[in-house]
Automatic annotation (TrEMBL):
Binding positions (ATP): 21-28
Cited function: Phosphorylation of dTMP to form dTDP in both de novo and salvage pathways of dTTP synthesis.
Record organism: Weissella minor
NCBIfam families with a match to the protein in the record: DTMP_kinase (TIGR00041)
Protein keywords: ATP-binding, Kinase, Nucleotide biosynthesis, Nucleotide-binding, Transferase
One annotated Gene Ontology cellular component of this protein: cytoplasm
SUPFAM superfamilies: P-loop containing nucleoside triphosphate hydrolases
Taxonomy of the source species: Bacteria, Bacillati, Bacillota, Bacilli, Lactobacillales
One GO MF term attached to the UniProt entry: ATP binding
Protein name (record): Thymidylate kinase
């Protein structure tokens, strides 16, 4: 009797990886290291960031970020949510069809920063309710004091952003991050060496792959 064997084809799922943390935590550096590692293994990747220019270049947003001037923080949060909706549908989802997508900041950054600005977490989640969960969320944790020290070194001679002028803001942002990032997130001590952090990320990335 002739037996027929069904061939099993393994396919690797493309992952959406979100990098989060305080400014100066090293998230952009680690995103780039992961991208280089994936490309060295002949995998397709797309690097992006949130928020996009729709939000960043808005006059009302810039007035707050640069000088702390705001007439309606609810409206600023809505602009961030709209920016994210466009980004997901026009950038993230199409690129996931072709490779891994690595995103510098994501919804959890909005939750953390807007909570620190006095907005309700429930409100931020409600206006972002359709945003997909990443396959891997990386939170690189450093103290607010260390974050501001690194920012000062990085941006020497440049104008200090409004929220970077007071350590208490970053204390609130860090607390909000830790309270609201997914339980499945990879939380890493950001005071380790770049190599040690990178190794933790690549190890976790490999675990999150799913084979069908």
């Amino acid at each position: 009797m002739k037996h027929r064997y069904k061939r099993r084809i393994n396919t690797v799922k493309n992952l959406l990886v979100a990098f989060c943390g305080l400014d100066g935590s090293g998230k952009t550096t680690q995103l780039n290291l992961l991208a280089d590692w994936l490309e060295s293994n002949h995998e397709h990747i797309f690097k992006t960031r949130q928020p996009c220019d729709f939000y960043r270049q808005n006059d009302k947003v810039r007035a707050y970020l640069d000088d702390g001037i705001v007439t309606n923080m609810h409206g600023i949060a809505l602009l961030a949510a709209a920016d994210r909706q466009f980004h997901v549908s026009e950038v993230i989802e199409p690129n996931l069809q072709h490779g891994h997508v690595l995103c510098d900041r994501y919804l959890y950054s909005s939750i953390a920063f807007f909570k620190a600005r006095g907005e309700s977490v429930d409100y931020i989640k409600a206006i972002n309710k359709d945003v997909p969960e990443p396959d891997l969320t990386v939170f690189i944790d450093i103290s607010p004091e260390e974050a501001l020290r690194r920012i000062a070194l990085r941006d020497a001679g440049q104008k200090t952003l409004f929220e970077e002028q007071d350590t208490s803001v970053f204390v609130k942002v860090r607390d909000a991050f830790l309270e609201n990032i997914p339980s499945s997130a990879l939380i890493i001590d950001g005071t380790q060496s770049k190599t040690a952090i990178h190794n933790e990320i690549t190890s976790e990335f490999e675990k999150r792959r799913s084979f069908v």
